[in-house]
Amino acid sequence: MKIFENKPQLLFFLILILLFFLRFWGLTANGVQHDAAINAVRAAGWLDFLAGSGQTSPISWFGEIPWWGSLSFHDHPPLVFWVENLSLKIFGENTFGVLVPFALAAMATGLILYYLVKKFISPSAGLWAILAFAVSSYATWVSRAGYLEGIEYLFLALSIFFFAQYLDLRRGRFLAFWAGSVGLALLSKYTAIFLLPAAVLYLLFWDWRVLKTKIFWLSLLLIPAVLSPVIVYNFQVFQATGHFDAALSSMLGMHPQDFEVIASRGINFNLGANFWSILDSLVTTASLPFLVLQGLALLFALGQVVRRKAGVLTRLLLLHILMIVVMFAFAGAQPRFLAILTPFLTLNLGIVLYEWWGKIATRPGTAQALAGGGLLLIFALELGYGINTNLLTKPLGRERIFYSPNRFYSQGFGELEQYLRDEVFVPLPPRRHVTKLEELTYFDVKEPYVVIIDARADWFATMWHVNRYSFYYNAPIVHFLDFHGLMKETGDAFAYLRKGGAVNFWFVLTTPAGIVGSPGDEEYQGAIRQLQALLERSRVQPQKFIKNSRGQTVFEIYEFSTAASASSGGS
Q: Residue 399: beta bridge partners?
């Protein structure tokens, strides 16, 4: 396409706008969900606590945070938590503050891919690469989801950038930068471990003399230096418990009781199922034409390697992709895990498209028009698939064909949190720094209100949008399960809470449309019905109805005073 050669600066600017639009438009619309939510809660106050018995942490083991407990987290290394903590301090403790680092990391990753290919091949090839990354629905999805991989793949891109620079210029500082990037990638998530065998295999196959240089081995020392917080943390955890953190324990086949909820994770030899999970993850995250195009580009690049016509960058990319696939062949790959493939797949696609177009350009006329129109159509379909998956509140068309089943939907938590901030937590209690377990588990009513939460809504989103106010602001939030236990224990939960100073009560009911997972056992459901009947007898009506993206009411919020609750008795 002539515009790639004739207007490169204009096209680069337009692609950057597209990259920005796809990563930032409506970024906060769906709130914070899944693992991103529990990571954000812990990052906000640098507190490693999940309020469960099946996945515990040092504060649970010792009743307080030991001196080394703040060096890392029980299930992940600390870098992404630190980035989020910094972002929340800069942008405020809100959904934008949680998600913006991942969108910015995507912008930086796109620029790295562009300049890498521009240097090693040509500016036009760089445009193909950043365009492929920009429109990739999979790359867009992970940059908006708040998963660790959204920061990790920035350092993956940096590592291949510096390694390729060293191979080209033979300057030792690039090896040091590469090792530092590997360390930072591992400090983001341990799945970056594939970077080491990929680099070593490249040197063994094509540049083995580097393995004999002192600078290579000295550079490797930077990796444990960067990882020193995690190393110290895991040494102390092993000394205290006989196992490592949850991620390392899974990788090493250890299944301690402290992490029994996630004990099934880790290495396994069910290769058939694991390969199927890889394939399924890829198929459900991209439009079919774009996925086929990426597959053809991989086959073409592999053919070049076999015929010994591949350049340094192509060989590096294929080895990195291969090592990712091998790694997940022994662990399985959910879409969020496999997202680390996106920089390498789109980079390879950009390089191959540049080569293909160079050949097509020599055949002007019908062939060029058909090829150009075909590529334009494929990219347009992927762009539409990505917008449908990541930007639209209500997707159009059929799932899996026009949008990914992995897309996020608003569950109403953003509106719920805003309502609590505006109507209940006024003024918001002072923020506290938690260091002891009793601060999280001892309930003390210090405000003239109590918020009772029906905990059948999504647990992950509840952690960020509701529970964090209990953790960090000591807001009197009681989950209905605990409230029901208090009713059985005291005979009159409202009277007990009134003695603590509560005057007004807020009850957040989760409707059937908002229930995630089990609707609760019969006793729980019966207690909910009892409370609803009490409110109905007291003529208390919902003050607020909150809907999800499908227009269904997911939360009903009731406000009532001690007068309404006084007749509850032992109900």
A: 403
DSSP 254: -
pLDDT in the model for residue 569: 43
CB 312 within 8 A of CB 120: yes
- For residue 427, cis peptide bond before it (omega within 30 degrees of 0): yes
pLDDT in tens, 492-534: 788 888 887 888 899 999 999 999 988 888 988 999 998 888 8
pLDDT score for 570:
41
For residues 343 and 37, give the distance between their C-alpha atoms in angstroms, rounded to a whole number. Answer: 24
Non-local CB neighbours of 491 within 8 Å, separated by 6+ positions: 569, 570
pLDDT band, very low/low/confident/very high, at 3 (cuts 50, 70, 90): low
Structure tokens at 3: 């515009």
Q: Per residue in 16-29, pLDDT tens?
A: 999 999 999 999 99
Q: What is the pLDDT of residues 301-355, one digit of tens each?
A: 999 999 999 999 999 999 999 999 999 999 888 999 999 999 999 999 999 999 9
Residue type, 545: F
pTM: 0.94
d(CA 46, CA 54): 20
CA distance 408 to 417: 18
Cα 233 to Cα 245: distance, rounded to the nearest angstrom = 8
Element counts in the chain: helices (H) and strands (E): 29, 5
Cα separation, 445 vs 168, in Å, equals 65
Q: Are 190 and 247 in contact (CB under 8 A)?
A: yes
Tokens representing residue 349 in the block: 């696609």
Task: State what percent of residues in the chain have pLDDT above 90.
Answer: 77
Beta carbons of 508 and 454 less than 8 angstroms apart: yes
Q: What's 507's DSSP letter?
A: E
Which phi and psi angles does 434 have, rounded to 5°? -85, 130
Which residues, 6+ apart, have CB-to-CB distance to 287 below 8 Å? 137, 378, 381, 382, 384, 385
Q: Is 70 helix (H, G, I), strand (E, B) or coil?
A: coil
Asked if 450 and 476 touch (Cβ cutoff 8 Å), the reply is yes
CB neighbours (10 Å) of residue 378? 18
The dihedral sign for the CA sequence 379, 385, 388, 391:
negative
Within 8 A by CB and 6+ apart from 552, the residues are: 511, 513, 514
Token couple for 312: 């340094």
176 closest CA partner among 166, 168, 185: 166
Q: Bin 474: left if φ > 0, else alpha if -120 < ψ < 50, else beta.
A: left
In this structure, what are the phi and psi dihedrals at residue 227, rounded to the nearest 5 degrees? -85, 5
Stretch 393-412: mean pLDDT, rounded?
95
Give the rounded distance of the alpha carbon of 276 from its chain centre. 22
